[in-house]
Amino acid sequence: MRILIDCRYVRIDRHDGISRYTAGLVGALARLHAERSAGGARINTERSAGGARINTERSAGGARINTERSAGGARIGTERSAGGESTNTERSAGGTHNGTGRGTARVGTEGTGDTIELLVSDRRQLAHLPSDLPWHLIGSPTAIGEPLVARHVRRLQPDVVFSPMQTMGSWGRDYGLVLTVHDLIYYRHPAPPPQFAAPIRLLWRLYHLAWWPQRVLLNRADAVVTVSAATASQVAERRLTRRPVTVVPNAPDPGPGLPRAPRTGALVYMGSFMPYKDVGTLASAMPALPGHELHLMSRITPDERARLTALAPGGRLVFHDGASDETYRDVLRGATALVSASRDEGFGIPLVEAMALGTPLVVTDIPVFREVGGDAAAYVAPGDVAGFVRAVRELDEPGVWEERSAAARAQGRRFSWENSARVLLALLERVAAARAR
Q1: Rounded to the nearest 10 degrees, what angle do helices 400-412 and 349-356 cross at?
Q2: Which carries the bigger pLDDT value, residue 107 or residue 394?
Q3: How far apart are CA 361 and CA 356, in angstroms?
Q4: How is the chain split into domains, by residue range?
Q5: Are 343 and 369 in contact (CB under 8 A)?
Q6: Residue 375 CB: number of other CB atoms within 10 A?
Q7: Buried b (16+ CB within 10 A) or exposed e, 400-418
Q8: What residues have CB less than 8 Å from 143, skipping those under 6 apart?
Q9: Who contacts 199 (Cβ-Cβ below 8 Å, separation ≥6)?
Q10: What is the pLDDT of residue 208?
């Protein structure tokens, strides 16, 4: 089975939610594939004392791959006559990549017959993806030709394609397709993310004016993935698809295994400052919490910074304005709690990141946070400033923080990219098998 993963939403600078979801799943799929391949990998190889040469030709797809390896290094070249694309990668004698290139040799796995390959729209995306997986360069997912992208993908002869979004073009496909719905937030909160260009923001608003465009896209797939049971329930409530829906949760990124730091008064917020996130409720609670400071990790505009500061007279706000992963982790592993006043989410990745480090949660009482946080969280009604104050103060009572920290670690162990990858791989195999019948 030949599986293609759409990695075109991977950010070239720093991950957002969809970018992290893609990279996390691909990394786990690569590890799972390597485990299944152990002892059974078969590559048509002619070995000599000086090196090895691998030749693969795909006449049906119009692609030819030639790899020559010598004692001094390796060169992998790909020529795709049908797509008019070419990729070249050179590796040094030490076997490491000398930049952003990746190899494109297809590896067959004896016993499973599976291959996992990546679709990217910018070579720089490969820096966030496993270096040992084949890849193909196609158009951007926001390009005008995206509705017809299947015409290019089908030349690669996949059995099934997985996209971490629901907008991948499907006209003219002859392969299995699995699309993803992360949330339905923007139907209730229609303001588009500010980083998008004006034409994209306009299309965004038009798309979210009605449910039927979503139904058209999802029903053109063979199956649909959501990141939470809460989102799956919303999809069912709105009858957005006739296709089977499978939950493939988010997970924390594998960390360096750092122990808990000594507990501090830090309250950590990681997320955007979109209106539905209601960060103002958190800021408004801070004057009543003199022993704590609110760490706001994400990039923030001067106007939003001024607004939040005005809401917290005498309270302590720490604006990191785009904290590094290292800074975020260091503050989080000693924090009193991770906090969120969000009124709507599809999952809540910071919750599982905090729980993995034993940091308790103080979050709004919405279904998806109940699903993710379990007994590790204190739940507060949306917009309830006094409720957030009480929940944080409760953690300062003897033994409460320690109990919640242990609960956080226990709940956090439910989420891993490996578990999610196994669920996704089983789904992709079912879709491919159903189409083969």
Answers
A1: 110
A2: 394
A3: 12
A4: 2-36+109-251+418-436, 54-106, 266-412
A5: no
A6: 11
A7: ebeebbebbeebbeebbbe
A8: none
A9: none
A10: 66
Same fold yes or no, 2-36+109-251+418-436 and 266-412: yes
Q: In this structure, which amino acid lies at residue 103?
A: G
Q: Phi, psi at residue 322, to the nearest 5°?
A: 100, 60
DSSP annotation of 53 reads: E
Q: Per-residue pLDDT tens for 325-382?
A: 899 999 999 999 999 999 999 999 999 999 999 999 999 999 999 999 998 899 999 9
List all residues 6 or more positions away from 46 whose beta carbon is below 8 Å from its beta carbon: 52, 53
The CATH number of domain 2-36+109-251+418-436 is 3.40.50.2000: yes
∠ CA 61-66-72, rounded to 5°: 160
DSSP string for residues in 228-272: SHHHHHHHHHTT--SS-EEE----PPP---PPPPPP-SEEEE-S-
Percent of the chain with pLDDT over 70: 79
Q: Name the DSSP letter for residue 191.
A: P
Return the CATH fold of 266-412.
Answer: Rossmann fold (3.40.50)
**What CA–CA distance (Å, rounded) separates 354 from 252?**
9
Q: Which two tokens stand for residue 25?
A: 């799943």
Tokens of 42: 């078969």
